[in-house]
Design brief:
CATH architecture: Sandwich
CATH superfamily: Jelly Rolls
Bound molecules: 2,5-dihydroxybenzoic acid, fe (ii) ion
Shape: globular
Helix content: 10-25%
Strand content: 25-35%
CATH topology: Jelly Rolls
Length: 370
């Protein structure tokens, strides 16, 4: 090293190319070598993609026969949906969120654990299963939305021979990226947490929205209502369908924390939206990524010029900052989409942006189909 410093001639003959090659090997990147271009607008390796329910259901049903739950099998019988831009064995439906399909049946028990990743479950089909959340069993019915927030103990059990199938949503890649993943098993020999509260107590206490028990506030950032029953959600949607919806989202409702009016969990926002017969939205884009599940009906979503036709049960993902619009394909039937997104994280740090598509009367042209 000393010798080199004594040779000014070597510094004088050093070319820019040699310099760049040298510093790259020293874990240095000159900002002029194109790094700034990455920052002008969002760039992502995440691709828009759609998983068809017919195939998902077949695979999850096969897994029911092939892998048992418990010590000799799996902790959870789950298939996670991997984006084509994410390499095996990493998890990611988008760069921040995962969607997965889970199934239990008979008298199976998925043992209790807790983790720093927040989770939601949107029930797809079946009957007679519960998720126990911090000692309280929440009964699952098709189209309910259940929450198991960050660091809440949770396990699942079935009381019915038929399989219960649901969509899991978690912020796994977000929490991994922040270096904050922790998980632990419930510390009892059988890994079952004791039941300490009546079944569906959170519904009894908190589902009335505008009317809440007195003296019950906590500093918890999560919704105290842990199960949003479909009957109430559908009733709200039906009432709102008589009004004008949003030009970009149709008749859209946010599931909210009844204490704050904000998103149900600090990292994940959940929505339900209806596209009325013949509805077709205008195109926009926003930061944040979204995962959609088709609850009912058929239609399509155009994402950056590519048309994704969907039907009941399908799941598709929206990368950040991509142009998108939705349409109901039917002139007689409603279409309903459940979705979850990382938008609370963006909004918390002033990173949420939205832009309307200006040309072509506000709707992007379709250039390809999926
Ligand atoms: O049911 O607790 O899809 O811990 C991924 C991780 C489900 C669960 C998933 C989990 C769970
Ligand atoms: Fe879990």
């Amino acid at each position: 090293m000393k010798a080199e410093k004594k040779e000014p001639s070597s510094d004088n003959t050093l070319t820019l190319e040699q310099f760049q090659e040298t510093v790259l090997q020293e874990q240095l990147t000159p900002l002029w070598m194109g790094a700034v271009g990455q920052l002008r607008e969002p760039h992502t390796h995440i691709e828009p993609y759609l998983w068809r329910w017919k195939e998902l259901r077949q695979r999850v049903t096969q897994s029911l026969k092939l892998i048992p739950l418990g010590d000799q099998g799996a902790e959870r019988r789950v298939l996670t949906l991997r984006n084509p831009g994410i390499p095996v064995p990493r998890m990611g439906t988008t760069h921040t969120l995962i969607a997965a399909i889970q199934v239990i049946a008979g008298t199976e028990v998925a043992p209790s654990h807790r983790h720093t990743m927040a989770a939601l479950r949107f029930i797809i089909e079946g009957e007679g299963a519960c998720t126990v959340v911090n000692g309280e069993p929440e009964s699952m019915q098709p189209r309910d939305l259940l929450l198991t927030p960050n660091w809440y103990w949770h396990g699942h059990f079935s009381e019915h021979p038929d399989p219960m199938i649901w969509l899991d949503g978690l912020d796994v890649p977000l929490v991994q990226g922040l270096g904050a993943t922790f998980q632990e098993n419930y510390p009892s020999p059988d890994r079952r947490q004791p039941i300490t509260a009546p079944r569906d107590e959170s519904i009894r206490r908190y589902s009335a929205g505008g009317l809440l028990p007195v003296g019950d506030r906590t500093a918890d950032k999560n919704s105290p209502l842990l199960n949003f029953r479909w009957a109430q959600t559908e009733d709200r949607l039906t009432q709102m369908a008589e009004r004008d919806g949003s030009p970009y989202d149709g008749v859209a409702l946010q599931y909210t924390n009844p204490f704050t009016g904000g998103p149900v969990m600090p990292t994940i926002d959940c929505w339900i939206q209806m596209l009325r017969p013949g509805d077709q939205t205008k195109t926009h884009r926003h930061t944040g990524s979204v995962i959609y599940h088709v609850v009912e009906g058929s239609g399509w979503t155009v994402i950056n010029g590519k048309r994704f036709d969907w039907a009941t049960g399908d799941i598709f993902c929206l990368p950040p900052w991509v142009w998108h619009d939705h349409a109901n394909a039917s002139s007689g039937q409603r279409a309903i989409l459940f979705s979850f997104a990382d938008t609370p994280v963006l909004k918390a740090f002033d990173l949420y942006r939205e832009e309307a598509y200006a040309e072509n009367q506000g709707r992007q042209p379709v250039e390809a189909t999926f």
